[in-house]
Amino acid sequence: MALMKRKRLLSLVILLLVVGQIGFAAVATRPSWSVGLGGSFCYPTADYLKQYPGNPEVKMPSFRTSRLLTMDLEFINIAYTFGKNNESAIRLGFGISYINVSKSFSYGISVLKPYNGVGFLADMGWRINSHFDVGVRYRLFQCFFSGSSARFIAHEVEFSPSYIFADLKAVEFSVGLPVAVLWKADSISVNASVALSVNIDSLSIKRRR
Fold first, then answer.
1. CA 68 to CA 113: how far, in whole Å?
2. CB under 8 Å to 93, separation ≥6 — which residues?
3. How far is Cα 176 from Cα 170, in angstroms, rounded to an integer?
4. Reduced to 3 states, what is the DSSP secondary structure of residue 62?
5. How far apart (Å, rounded) are the C-alpha atoms in residues 39 and 101?
6. What is the rounded distance in angstroms from the CA atom of residue 199 to the CA atom of residue 203?
7. Domain boundaries in the chain?
8. What is the pLDDT of residues 62-101, one digit of tens each?
9. Cα–Cα distance, 117 to 142 (Å, whole number)
10. What's the mean pLDDT when you consider all of the chain?
11. Is the dihedral of CA 114, 146, 158, 135 positive or negative?
12. Residue 60: what pLDDT?
């Protein structure tokens, strides 16, 4: 009985905290679009050699470097805002992503093929204040090599700090430095880029009405 009472008391305290926060917070939707340019640094794993069974001329490629282009469209991004001026937020977003990795720079006869990928995006982030934001993203890509029907699945986890350099109330412009780890069946890549983002803040639009 004492344990049940403590659980009820704890539940009541949590409920009061949530209700209290609602008075100083709001829910906003912040769809966004971003484009990133950078480099993909790939390290093939042992599974790479399985693509060439019985061919003694094929050697394990060394560390390879390619050009990288990324695009994200978050059509759902819900933010729980708080602070005196709603300058801070915890957000959760979903959308679609596109990735383009060029063929690797030549290193002898070893050149990794270029590929493209389209997939699902899930995003969690923290708006620290009106200028700084950090986020973690997961992407699940369906990829295909350029000029080939071969397809493969790739997973990516990204950490992205960003700086909001222009705030037009309803529209924000930010620059980020995302770093991601992408892995597929035969390699692991570290992708680093500079990304520009446009964010639409529904809460600011409501305030202007």
1. 13
2. 30, 32, 74, 76, 77, 78, 121, 122, 123, 124, 125
3. 19
4. coil
5. 8
6. 12
7. 26-208
8. 678 899 999 999 988 887 877 766 678 888 899 999 999 9
9. 5
10. 79
11. positive
12. 57
Distance CA 110, CA 120 (A): 31
Domain 26-208 CATH class label:
mainly beta
List 167's β-bridge partners, or say none.
172
Q: 2: pLDDT confidence band, cut at 50, 70 and 90?
A: low
Residue of 113, 188, 175 whose CA lies nearest to 144? 113
SS3 99: strand
Q: What is the pLDDT of residue 61?
A: 61
| Rounded-to-integer distance, Cα 63 and Cα 72, Å | 27
Pairing assessment for the beta strands 171-176 and 115-127 based on DSSP bridges:
unpaired
Map residue 130 onto helix, strand or coil: coil
* Cα 198–Cα 99–Cα 159 angle in degrees, nearest 5: 65
pLDDT digits (tens, 9 = 90+) for 95-139: 999 999 998 887 655 678 899 999 999 999 998 888 899 999 999
| CA-to-CA dists, residue 99 to 141, 169, 185, angstroms | 8, 30, 17
C-alpha span between 102 and 111 (Å, rounded): 10
Task: Note the pLDDT of residue 22.
Answer: 39
Q: β-pairing, 151-167 with 115-127? A: unpaired
For residue 6, which phi and psi values (nearest 5 degrees)? -65, -40
Measured in degrees and rounded to the nearest 5, phi and psi for residue 50 equal -70, -15
d(CA 137, CA 155): 11
